[in-house]
Design a protein that fits this description.
- The structure is a homodimer.
- By secondary structure, the first copy, chain A, is mainly alpha-helical.
- Chain A has 3 domains: 134 residues, MgtE N-terminal fold (Alpha Horseshoe), CATH 1.25.60.10; 120 residues, Roll (CBS-domain); 170 residues, SLC41 divalent cation transporters, integral membrane domain (Tetracycline Repressor, domain 2).
- Chain A contains 23 helices and 6 strands.
- A 3-stranded mixed β-sheet of chain A has the order 1-2-3.
- The longest helix of chain A is centred in the C-terminal third of the chain and has 34 residues.
- Chain A is elongated.
- The relative contact order of chain A is 0.07.
- Chains A and B meet through helix 1, helix 3, helix 12, strand 3 and helix 13 of A and helix 1, helix 3, helix 12, strand 3 and helix 13 of B.
- Chains A, B: Homodimer.
- Chains A, B: Acts as a magnesium transporter.
Chain lengths: 452, 452
Amino acid sequence: MPEAYEQTLSNQTLHELTASLNRGMFVHVRNALHNMPACDVAFILESSPVKTRFAFWQLIDSEFHGEILEELSEDVRSSIVRQMMPEAVAEATEGMDTDDLAEILRSLPEHLYQEVLSSLDAQDRHRAEAALAYEEYSAGSVMNTDTVTIRPDVTVEVVLRYLRMRTNLPKNTDSLYVVDKDDVLIGDVSLIKLVASQPEVEIGQLMDTDVVAIPATMSESEAAQMFERHNWISAPVVNEQNHLLGRITIDDMVDIIREDAEHSMMSMVGLDDEEDTFAPVVQSTQKRSIWLGVNLITALLAATVSNFFEDVLSQLAVLAILNTIVPSMGGVAGNQTLTLVIRAIALGQVLPSNTRSLLIKELTIGLLNGLIWALLIAGIVGIWKQDLTLAAIIAFAMLMNMVAAGISGVTIPLILKKFNIDPALAGSVILTTVTDIVGIFAFLGSASLFLM
Amino acid sequence: MPEAYEQTLSNQTLHELTASLNRGMFVHVRNALHNMPACDVAFILESSPVKTRFAFWQLIDSEFHGEILEELSEDVRSSIVRQMMPEAVAEATEGMDTDDLAEILRSLPEHLYQEVLSSLDAQDRHRAEAALAYEEYSAGSVMNTDTVTIRPDVTVEVVLRYLRMRTNLPKNTDSLYVVDKDDVLIGDVSLIKLVASQPEVEIGQLMDTDVVAIPATMSESEAAQMFERHNWISAPVVNEQNHLLGRITIDDMVDIIREDAEHSMMSMVGLDDEEDTFAPVVQSTQKRSIWLGVNLITALLAATVSNFFEDVLSQLAVLAILNTIVPSMGGVAGNQTLTLVIRAIALGQVLPSNTRSLLIKELTIGLLNGLIWALLIAGIVGIWKQDLTLAAIIAFAMLMNMVAAGISGVTIPLILKKFNIDPALAGSVILTTVTDIVGIFAFLGSASLFLM
């Protein structure tokens, strides 16, 4: 009988396993882990704090270590691999998919790397070295070399006989690649087409010659975008001479699509590389400190701007009280525009031809927003502080800052991109600096002109 | 010859097409669009401002409208469909995948919805109504009903003969589903296994009975997480009696995986539903206003807190100048924790059993960060303002606020989740309110105690 969903991993399971572990019921935990699919064990490891994670890992029979490592996310995987003996790593990675093997080797510190590499058997070492020859994050580094290739002059029947002899096809094979005698890719035949064809038809007549191949040097993110756009299950990878090198499958691309989408969100608060929710404290503090340091500089910059207006501030405490409102609203409005533009850049939607429309659109929104919130804040301040000049001043500052927010939200990420700086990483902090400074200048500046 | 990547859509193409459109070279644009795959035309429409988008759309022959609509993202698709005549929509959706057809109908305003539904031919209307019977965003609403089912008592040879007769298998078929006479799912056979098996083997012996089926009532996001975790290409959908209803394929899930990952980022700045980069100005302004309104309230709250300390502020302008630093640092540190926790919740990693570890971890980071930045800001203020008491006061406020940021970053999203409020949507604004108020209270409060 097929498994009902209820029998697969639930959060309840994880809760119970952690409780059992804490109560020292190791045999129970070991048995439970052994009866689970590797992907569920991987999920449990990813959802556990570091100590619990290692405790679980040690209860898992080493013969399953390989398949579980394959399922883990990069950060969590390397946190485990770094604790293992080189021989144990070599053993666990035996026969692993080329891309996972290369990724594990890349995550190791230099001395372990060499040791593990030399402990691999000849075939795995050869495969790993081939994958490591491609740059990290390139299509070549995530491809698998286990493709099934056929020649155009054979018939469907011959191919089917050949497949029956092989008995085992690589995971997620949906197409066979047709190559000439020099291994140049000339087309593909989907399994769907193959099984639905008459036995005597020749592959040359059946094959699809429109197949789009991915160059091994393309970035994995670009390749993932192509998978997403074209709804591919797998795609062939070729070198510059169009020689077939391997194939990429959708399951590896799904991880990259998710990581790329998450990347912007994480980068915007400076968590760029912190993929592991339960990373050790010192490691996390270090990673986050850079961002806090940058923010301290911007906060000090804003304080310096306020410092210019010490005179007016010392005479009118009400300005100190209202001084944070305009920068705060500008920051939020600017970050809305910025987030939208960062996402559009990530999707490849922002181009020279439509930048102007985007800028005009966001500028208009900034003006509209500026008018709405200027009127509202003028009303509130007018009633609260019974001062019409003050109300006019804060309204003017709000309008200025909203327009500045709209312009900065579009231009800052575009400028950063031009200089090859990740807009998600640096955009938000630069934008906030701009909206803080413009907001404070507009508010305190006009206050010192009209209220003194 | 297989297409090289250079011949597929590049940003250059989009740039040239927009230029040609602006120069009025309609025939050229029309021909170019006709020679492109539907997914590339969809990309061009998504990357164009509203006016250009409609200009392109009108140049596309109506017989291609259907396949292009299938490739468009939801927001962009509904912006186009709302401009079309009901008959044109009905014509374009003829024979479309059930899930896309249902989604298009759902995006229509009520009066158009009925008109389009009644213009559909009987078969499409029947399929659409079946899909519409499932709740929006449920697995049932995204499934396709075009499954290939076989019985367990036939041989591989019979199945292959049957497939040859059908000649055309549904897109992305990687498995055939094995059902009994009541249509109850009892297993599946992958195409890979089928082509690699001897003709005389019976399906009952070959089939995999461990197949995990998705209940039609499961949410599409949960289903997408299962696809991601299990590396599926397709999965069967069943009702409560385990009757096979249809199947879901990875290409539809990839969109949901991306949308879910982006959702948190967009929500955090209140852009929840704005998927269309080039949405009209008024629509965008409205959507963003809610968020700005909420922020205005928090900014006013913070101003009210400062208002309590009007006395000390009016005597010491330096406090007004430094007043923004501590809230700003607390806001950044808190948002780092918040973003991490929101992502972990989205991935299903946060559970009662590990909440305590997470809280202790973030609290410790808060303390460590607090100490580091308290010392640094004390040094800076001590040197800048030549006032050791002031330096001690700002250091104390910094430490307090960093700890508050760590605690709030973990607890706020968890509490929101308990009350079924999206933590990504409301978390950031509540957290910032907390760090603003704690920061101002700690700084101005201790200043009024020790400096007056």
